[in-house]
TrEMBL record:
<dbReference type="InterPro" id="IPR054105">
    <property type="entry name" value="WHD_NrtR"/>
</dbReference>
<dbReference type="Pfam" id="PF21906">
    <property type="entry name" value="WHD_NrtR"/>
</dbReference>
<dbReference type="InterPro" id="IPR000086">
    <property type="entry name" value="NUDIX_hydrolase_dom"/>
</dbReference>
<dbReference type="InterPro" id="IPR015797">
    <property type="entry name" value="NUDIX_hydrolase-like_dom_sf"/>
</dbReference>
<protein>
    <submittedName>
        <fullName>NUDIX hydrolase</fullName>
    </submittedName>
</protein>
<dbReference type="InterPro" id="IPR036390">
    <property type="entry name" value="WH_DNA-bd_sf"/>
</dbReference>
<dbReference type="GO" id="GO:0016787">
    <property type="term" value="F:hydrolase activity"/>
</dbReference>
<keyword id="KW-0378">Hydrolase</keyword>
<dbReference type="Pfam" id="PF00293">
    <property type="entry name" value="NUDIX"/>
</dbReference>
<dbReference type="InterPro" id="IPR036388">
    <property type="entry name" value="WH-like_DNA-bd_sf"/>
</dbReference>
<feature type="domain" description="Nudix hydrolase">
    <location>
        <begin position="12"/>
        <end position="148"/>
    </location>
</feature>
Length: 247
């Protein structure tokens, strides 16, 4: 009796990076212009294949991060986002991507990597709305990355990863507004932030001039989990009242 010999299907592994920062008060994501097929000339997330069979996935993510932004471990918040492996996501074959979310404050103008024609910070909303088209399934990955950031801002200290070492509460509020995409009441925000003990702590007597009265400086505190959480506001929508039509 003939016994079929099974062999594993060829599968390639890549890492992709959703790199977020604030630029002029707007949430932006780093995109590169692909310099080769497939999708040559289209915008995509920075990333690439493993260098060799022995390279760890996290090491590959940090390597790509360093190549695209010159950042190294310890300077940036980096976490694994999700794995994307739909059979048709890459025309080169079965390619599985382990996507990572990276967040850092005040990132500089990017420099294109070896396989990219250009690199730029693009407003996140332009990607979410579909105004900017991305290669592969990268719009889905960006959407998932931004939603991860939005959700974690509620219950974790992730917002401080968007700030420098020292920041004002007004600057922290700007992070929440940019990531959540909504304006917040200043007094209410101040009260809620101060209610979470250990979220942020005063940075000594330092103060920063903001054009008016000098504002107190803070730094990230020891708390990584926020309780009570800072709940994201529900977008307010209005429905046109047509009950009086025809009267």
């Amino acid at each position: 009796m003939q016994v079929d010999v099974w062999s594993p299907p060829p599968v390639l592994l890549t890492v992709d990076l959703v790199i977020l920062t604030l630029r002029e008060g707007r949430l932006c994501v780093l995109l590169v212009e692909r310099g080769e097929d497939p999708f040559q000339g289209m915008l995509a997330l920075p990333g690439g294949f493993l260098n060799h069979a022995g390279e760890e996935i996290l090491d590959a993510a940090y390597r790509e991060l360093s190549e695209e932004t010159a950042l190294v471990a310890g300077w940036v918040h980096l976490e694994q986002l999700a794995t994307y492996g739909d059979a048709g996501r890459d025309p080169r074959g079965r390619v599985v991507s382990v996507a990572h979310l990276a967040i850092a404050p005040g990132l500089p103008e990017p420099v294109a990597g070896t396989d990219a024609m250009d690199a730029a910070w693009v407003p996140a909303e332009a990607v979410l709305s579909g105004e900017v088209e991305l290669a592969f399934d990268h719009r889905r990955i960006v959407t998932d990355g931004i939603e991860r950031a939005r959700t974690k801002l509620e219950s974790s200290a992730l917002a401080t990863a968007f700030c420098g070492e020292f920041f004002t509460i007004a600057e922290l509020q700007q992070v929440y507004e940019a990531v959540w995409g909504t304006e917040l009441d200043t007094r209410n925000f101040y009260r809620k932030v101060q209610a979470v003990k250990g979220f942020i702590i005063p940075a000594g007597p330092g103060r920063r001039s903001t054009g008016g009265r000098p504002a107190r400086l803070y730094r990230a505190g020891p708390k990584t989990v926020l309780f009570p959480p800072l709940i994201r506001p529900v977008p307010f929508t209005t429905e046109e009242d047509t009950s009086g039509e025809g009267e």
